[in-house]
Amino acid sequence: MKIVETPWERLYKFILFIFGIPILIIGIIVLAIKGNWAITINGIIWTIVGLGLKIKSIYNTQKLKTIKREGLSYEGTVVKIIPAPWVRIGSFVTARVECLYKTENGDNLVRSGYHLLLPFDRIEDLYAKIYFNHNLEDHIVELFRRDTGISYN
User: What are residue 22's DSSP bridge partners?
Assistant: First the structure.
């Protein structure tokens, strides 16, 4: 089983290294030659967005580690994929999943954060592990993809 990535883990690299830093460098050169701040400010904004996404990725990773270590975990089954059609990263589709997990009190349904799914991912190929903190208010869904022999890298 392979972990399904979240958009925060991939998107910051693209925004920071394709838009942020190159536009900032070009803006500094244009600023030195012509005295125009427009491209420099644009580069600064893209760099800040990229760094913000990196901080979000680090925060989510640390939160998952903490909840894994200190919280409760349940095995879950994916019952529904909810795509976000306005957000595509390369060939990936950004989507949320609804997961069903069983407790002593019965079945419960939770919705995950955003994950990067392949266009041909099916519900049967996805597996979820749900982590809760001790008071069951905060949860994180870790999504796994069964190995189908199809490469996506």
Answer: none
For residue 73, give the 3-state DSSP assignment.
strand
What secondary structure does DSSP assign to 10-35, as a single string? HHHHHIIIIIIHHHHHHHHHHHHHH-
3-class DSSP state of 7: helix
Question: How much of the chain exceeds pLDDT 70, in percent?
Answer: 96
- pLDDT of 150 > 70? The answer is no
- pTM: predicted TM-score of the whole model, two decimal places: 0.80
Q: Could you tell me the CA-to-CA distances from 108 to 27, 71, 114, 139 in Å, in that order?
A: 52, 17, 20, 13
What are the backbone angles phi and psi of residue 6, rounded to the nearest 5°?
-100, 160
Interatomic CA distance for residues 105 and 102, integer angstroms: 8
- The domains of the chain are located at 2-67, 71-145
Quickly count: other Cβ atoms within 10 Å of residue 43's Cβ: 22
pLDDT of residue 151: 57
